[in-house]
TrEMBL record:
Pfam families: peroxidase. One of its GO terms (cellular component) is plant-type cell wall. Residues 1-24 form the signal peptide. It comes from Marchantia polymorpha. The keyword ATP-binding does not apply. Substrate binds at residue 163. Disulfide bonds join 37-115, 70-75, 200-233. Its EC number is 1.11.1.7. Keywords: Calcium, Disulfide bond, Heme, Iron, Metal-binding, Oxidoreductase, Peroxidase, Signal. Heme b binds at residue 193. This is peroxidase.
Amino acid sequence: MGSFPPFRLLSLLGLILLATTTDAHSYSGADYYKDSCPQATTIVTDMVNNFVKVNKNLAGGFLRLHFHDCFVRGCDASVLLNSPTNTAEKDARPNGSLRGFDEIDQIKAALEAECPGIVSCADILALAARDATVKVGGQSWSLDLGRKDGELSISSEADAKLPSPFSTYDELVQNFTALGFTQEEMVILSGGHTIGRSSCGAVQSRLYNFNGVAGLTDPSIDASLATQLKKKCPENEPGS
């Protein structure tokens, strides 16, 4: 398997995310809104640039939000739906740390003011992920627009399908293979984690309790990096 520069991974990620869509979702090209809402992509780009300018971590947030949406039912914005019984995708455990919902709502509101009922939330998520990646120095990619928003969102599906940060390599391969991805594509998609942030809970066991040994730090972690991580994630603080 060849190696890819981090942002080359991100540009390829945008292309591969299209493969997660179902047959029911058809795309009509990058100029899908040319006549119905000609300012659509400009509005999204400008707003995303402003959000990321204030908080660079939102770039990773937008990218992750798009990925978590696409991985379950295809790129249909079902991750944005709310449930009165807390059983929607956003209520699933893997989605508890997703960010960018408020910003996506603001973008949607601006588009509704410009051209009511035209631009899908699914397209907004796809555009935001790409534009945020570009804003922090990544390469752009062409997007075929015209996604349709889903009406069904089930937390148990997200729990079952989304990759776990604690999975073994073989488990991840099985997880991605189920959606038709090769191992190389899995690695490319994982490259999206080169931007953004993680939670302390994802690394604390490797910093203080590696292999269940109290006080042991994973020796595979660079010593200077481990020192920095311990400053940001003290042992006795919650892994948030």
